[in-house]
Design brief:
Elements lengths: L4 H7 L4 H12 L13 E5 L12 E6 L3 E8 L2 E10 L1 H4 L5 H5 L4 E6 L3 E6 L5 H9 L7 E7 L4 E8 H6 L6 E5 L2 H8 L7 E6 L3 E8 L2 E9 L3 H14 L8 E6 L6 H7 L4 E4 L13 H8 L7
Parallel strand pairs: 2-5, 5-9, 10-13, 13-14
Antiparallel strand pairs: 1-4, 2-3, 3-4, 6-8, 7-8, 10-11, 11-12
Helix pairs in contact: 2-8, 7-10, 8-9
Length: 302
């Protein structure tokens, strides 16, 4: 079983490269604009969008305990997209009442986990699931969910029950882990051994690495600033024995090439790119990397 982050962290010493991050930011000036879209906003609405046809649409929701993003699709066509709404809106719709109460063909919901661990499929038995769940330190207000991550791993994760309650009234819903679609999208695009796939969310970053197209590393980390983001990416490199100077980062989420987070990462890793993979049809005004994780929930439909 993959080590928990706490186990990895205790064995890691801060390298010269990680130390250099602290001095580099003093010498350079950056414009830091992570989560620029965190203020709730509907970014795009198609001229073809009409809730009178909602029964032919899919509603995609990606939520943590404080925020959610949403998109409305017809097949693979984006019709509407919004980000940064409070989860209170899910419990008691106001600004998005029409959107959240429409009768959709399907509702795909990706929930952010408070903690997760992976269990090899070969060990998939109820007793082993219970053992693995104990590693998550589940509280009274949390619930454990289990689902296949890929052909050889199960994802065991915990979510706040308040988040499950917030989406309970949505009809035709299917709940999955928030990263599930993103993982499917990455794995389908021939990931290379030296690539780190990084999804930046609301003060949370998910990191993937593959070895000959087989999952080698997956974990999520909470972070507060550019230094912590770079640190965790470097920590993953150390865990998989990859020199940061040889690592290629492919970033999705609320980041762009002109903000300080992106520029800061470029100083320490061999190559830093925005992830241009697209799983749905997008208008020219919507950048693929910004909506990738949300849009990829469409790959989870069953």
């Amino acid at each position: 079983m993959r080590k928990a982050f706490a186990d990895v962290f205790c064995t890691v010493h801060i390298t010269k490269m990680l130390n250099s991050m602290l001095t580099y930011v003093i010498q350079k000036k950056y414009y830091f604009c992570l989560n620029c879209m965190s203020e709730n906003k509907t970014h795009y609405t198609s001229d073809d969008f009409s809730l009178s046809r909602a029964n032919t649409y899919s509603l995609l929701l990606q939520a943590d305990v404080n925020h959610f993003d949403y998109a409305v699709l017809q097949d693979k066509q984006l019709l509407q997209w919004g980000t940064g709404f409070s989860t209170d809106e899910l419990r008691d719709p106001s600004d998005l009442r029409d959107i959240l109460t429409a009768n959709y063909k399907r509702v795909l919901i990706g929930l952010k986990a408070d903690a997760l661990t992976l269990l090899p499929a070969a060990l998939y038995e109820q007793a082993h699931i219970a053992d693995a769940a104990r590693l998550l330190d589940v509280k009274d207000n949390e619930k454990v969910l289990v689902e296949p991550l890929d052909e050889v791993n199960y994802n065991i994760y915990k979510v706040d029950e308040a988040l499950l309650y917030a989406v309970k009234d949505l009809d035709n819903r299917q709940i999955t882990h928030a990263d599930m679609g993103w993982i499917k999208a990455v794995s389908a695009n021939y990931p290379t051994n030296t690539s780190l796939y990084v999804h930046v969310g609301y003060e949370c970053v998910s990191v993937l690495n593959y070895h000959y197209s087989k999952l080698r590393f997956y974990n999520c980390f909470s972070f507060k600033n550019h230094e912590e983001l770079a640190y965790f990416c470097a920590l993953v490199c150390k865990e998989i024995d990859l020199e940061p100077s040889k690592a290629r980062l492919y970033i999705s989420g609320d980041m762009n090439t002109t903000d300080g987070y992106f520029t800061y990462l470029k100083a320490f890793f061999g190559e830093v790119n925005l992830n241009s993979a697209s799983v749905i049809n997008l208008p020219a005004t919507v950048a693929a990397h910004q909506i990738l994780s949300l849009a990829a929930l469409s790959l989870c439909a069953s």
